[in-house]
Automatic annotation (TrEMBL), chain A:
InterPro entries: GerAC_N, Spore_GerAC-like, Spore_GerAC-like_C, Spore_GerAC_C_sf. Its main location: membrane. Residues 21-191 form the Spore germination protein N-terminal domain. It is a lipid-anchor. Keywords: Germination, Lipoprotein, Membrane, Palmitate, Signal. It comes from the Bacteria. Residues 223-383 form the Spore germination GerAC-like C-terminal domain. Belongs to the GerABKC lipoprotein family. It is found in: Membrane. One of its GO terms (cellular component) is membrane. PROSITE patterns: PROKAR_LIPOPROTEIN (PS51257). One of its GO terms (biological process) is spore germination. This is Ger(X)C family spore germination protein.
UniProtKB/TrEMBL annotation, chain B:
The chain crosses the membrane at residues 14-36, 42-63, 83-105, 117-137, 149-169, 189-211, 223-244, 272-297, 309-332, 338-358. This is GerAB/ArcD/ProY family transporter. Its main location: membrane. Keywords: Germination, Membrane, Transmembrane, Transmembrane helix, Transport. It comes from the Bacteria. It comes from Aquibacillus halophilus. GO terms for cellular component: membrane. Pfam families: Spore_permease. The lineage of its organism: Bacteria, Bacillati, Bacillota, Bacilli, Bacillales.
Amino acid sequence: MKKILKIIIIFSLLIMSGCWDRKELNELAILTGLAIDKEDDEYKVTAQVLNPGEIAGKAQSTRVAVSTYEATGKSVFEALRALTITSPRKLYLSHLKLVVLGEELATQGIGQSLDFLSRDHELRTDFFILISKENDASSILKILTPIDKIPTSKIFDSIESSEENWAPTKGVHLHDLIAKLSSESDNPVLTGVYVEGDIDFGGSVENVERINSPSVISLDYLGIFKEDKLVGWLNKNESKAFNYIMDNVKNTVGVEKCEGGNVTLEIYETNTEVKVVEDNGLPKITVKVESDVSIGEVRCKENILGEEKLKELAEKLDKQTREVLNEGLITAKELQTDIFGFGEQIRKQNPKLWNKVKENWNEEGFVHLDVQIESHYNIRRTGTIKESFQWKASGD
Amino acid sequence: MIGSSKEKISQKQLTSMIILFTIGSAILFIPSFLANVAKQDAWISAIVATVLGLFTVLFYSKLYKLYPKKSYFECATFILGKWIGGAVILITYIYFFILSSLILWDLGEFLKTQVLVQTPIQVILILFMLTVIYTVRLGIENVGRTSEVFLPWVLGLFLLMCVFLIWSLEKGNLLPYLEKGVMPVLHGSYYLLSFPYLELIIFLMITPYVNKETKVQKSFLQGTLVAGGLLITTTFLCILVLGADVTARNTFPVYVLGKMVSVGEFLERLEIIIAIIWFLSIYFKLAIVFYVLVASLSDFVKAKDYRPITLPLGMLLVVMSPIMFTSTMQVASFDKEVFFPLTYIVGFFLPLIVYIAGKIKHKKRGI
């Protein structure tokens, strides 16, 4: 009798495994992107959901790989649940790659819409947060993209690769954003994203049937915030300045004039140090940028590879960097928001001093902050060739 | 000695039980507790508390040495007499009961919020309790042996986790040191010392089983040192990877830590490793507390065997736990206002009284 009971128990282990909270794949709508807009007092949530048959199925039809659903609600959570009316299955949030916030919502303040994203258990934290520039956030999710069938995945990869190779953008994760929002000594930035071309056309399959898609999703530069409100946009140089100061630059290019054209340099390693010193009871900040560069493209008439010439070139680069960094600094000071986290640096390096100056930091302390920028370039390599063939040709 | 006197625990087994017990439920909650009060200095709090914890267990092993063959409860009645000793035992027993319900609640809370959101909490609690009851029916020797088997897994997985996190460290998160002075750090240590170090008093109930008397102190110190190291490392990693702010805001920062692991874009979503570590450690913590609960109760009623009451007491726990603890917020304030002070009384003041009285008794007899 006991033996039989044991056998039954063991067998039931085999057939009864699984769990209460199971969610079968065919019951899920996998959410890849989420757009949040504000319409009057309500949130409009747009969800981009995978169409699994089109991604993995062998017989692919002309149907699109993703679909979007929209719903409004008094909160983000409510709107997400309201989506069940239109979406065929319950949304599964764990694979979210992208959250796009509307520009209007951003100018009114993003804080309130973020709580759900950090509270819900299904959401992970590895998605990027962007601001849609000019258009509604929802339109960003309605453009089909070539190469990558899933548009959000395309944007996600774009952010990662441009962050690696091109200085003016920055991918922001939820944790960083919330940490900056809740800190009194720091303000966040978010990368902008916009649709180039016709939005309606971008949503049709025709858009990806052409070799040169008429509507594309493109990353813009950085939108800067004061507390949780969007107060302005930086241009290319200012965005670059931001990333230099924050030591986010991994690899980028810089162009410098020379006789008869210009020379482009690949900056492959940069290191920024922000130092705080106390000067007459006021903080004084030194930003020291140290970069290793190699020559990437030469369009000059004369030979610039002599030791003296290279030194000159490096000095020119130093000057240019100082100017660019100053440009970014001035814009941020005009908008009275310390996006560089200088306040945070003061707090970290000299907490006593910070306590003295923290009152009205963005409006007063930061605006009048004395920031010294130092830059030093080391030109290390010249690429695979030494002297340019152009010099031979022009020398004849 | 409570329970069956035939059982024996080796020194190694005692060490691994102490390690798993100390990690117990603490590893998931402690970084958040500490970061809440001590901010980026949470790891300093952890170090201070661990040092104090080592002194505490040193004191426990001194207490053990008074009467190595007697459990803490027997010591109390023997030294303080039937009435005062009885009072000490009663308070301590109630404390152990609350502790076990709290452990059970911790587990339910974690699973219910993070993993099995739609599963009724009773199902989780009953299944877990059944496993614990089964283990305890097999005896404390068995718990010891199993802990020896599972300890390498816990340590190994933990190490793996740490290695994967190396890529995400940001040393700037540690600055500035001691921003608000020493007080917040000590405040954090106050929490950590009571949860889990002062809970180790429960081991005085099972030390009589240890086969070598002289090795108990070594076990206590080794176990606390290893577990303390793990707790310090976890807190340190939380602050380094997540920053003080995120650590403080999350209920289970260590689980979030697991979510942060991303090595080369293919080694991701490892948070369940954290859950496994935690299941194992909390299972042992509950098994040890539950064993002491049933064994000492059966001892009190002079029953020959403690096994018959495992099932009823287990049922009681499953029922009591959701009744005693109804919400996350309630438990947070219960911990702060009732449980931590109670831990100081049960884990420090009462044993101190027993110890001093015991010493006086020894002196009177001229030993």
